[in-house]
Amino acid sequence: MRTVLVLMALVFLIIMLVLLITPFKQSNQLIQPAVTVEAKEITVPELVSRINNFTLNLYGELLKEHWNRNIVVSPFNVYIALTLLYEGTNGSTRTEMGNVMGLTNVDVCKAYQQLLDSLPIGISNETALMIANAIWLKQGFPFKTKYIETISKCYRAEAKYFSTIDQLVKEVNSWVSNRTRGLIRKLLDKDTVGDVVAVIVSAIYFKAEWVEKFKPSAPIRFWTGESYVEAQAMEVISDIINVVHDVNYTAVEIPYRNTSISMIILIPENYTEIRTRYKELIMDALSKLNETHSKKTVWLIMPKFNITLKTNLVSYLQNMGIREVFIPGKADLTKMANVEKGSIWVDKAIHQAVIKVNEKGTKAAAATAIVVVTSLPLADEKIIVNKPFIYMLWDRKSNAILFIGHVVNPAEAK
After folding, report:
1. 10-25 b/e with 16+ CB inside 10 Å = b?
2. 3 state DSSP class of 176
3. pLDDT band at residue 126, thresholds of 50, 70 and 90?
């Protein structure tokens, strides 16, 4: 039975958007590529606008497939990981990624560092926000020193080296578990990595307590869109909860203690329209919440929830327009390593996210691993045996045919 809760599919996305709320006063249209040839520096608000644009677009791709199930995702985290990859791209691969990410002819280095400095990053007993980046490089592979220096300087990424797959998987999982305080323990497994030469990893962790804690409430009947389910609930009566009402939705902002981050609950009047109207509703709600500070006492009753999602993002990113970097023979990662174009490419973009919401507060984490592998030798011709055939065991030296037969139905030849 599908349980609590469909509307909470928006929550982790909204947390990250509220964290960066100011730029939503700008246009919500896609940022057009810069026309200058020289890479230019951009401001923090400009970078945030690009990240939020990517956030809404990636969430929209996930929404198409998962609109009727609970999800959690951090496109913010995915964007950071892709930016580290972007620094290693060249040619049309770079152009393609730059168009989707809003980074064409942009030097994002300084703005990213300023963004990290502007976020409420830190750890206390009640609140924590941590962002960390790293890259694992295969020992002996000809990576470019400039690339390693760039991602270390601009994105504060740790550069590590591995010699075996077992070592790689163990170290990546340990690093991610440590950075997410155990919420994500197994991002990689040996079966998901092939002839890997590099893994780019980004992680984010958030923990906070409500300014005014909830208390347990009686279970509520929750409408999933198809039926009612019984959901474990919590409640609070507070005069610091911000509320906005619209004909299309109700939005609630719940503040956390000792941070500028808050949770937004967006309740559409008609959830069945969410796949086509999500961006419009989110943008409108955040804009109004940013301008409104309601001064009334609110009795809020909502479900507790715990959601985990792990997925390979390649198909979603391809739908958004990032395609070439995933194609052997075409991917241009020549700024990452001293290799021929197409000889290394991205095989997987694994993303895992977790969120836990209860009476005390919220814990959330996400991690993304971009797996770069070596390409198979390029073929001059491709042959697929997909119809009946004759087979022989033939000795080339003597010309003797030792066995002969044919296959008409491989399904019976087991």
Report:
1. bbbbbbbbbbbbebbe
2. helix
3. confident
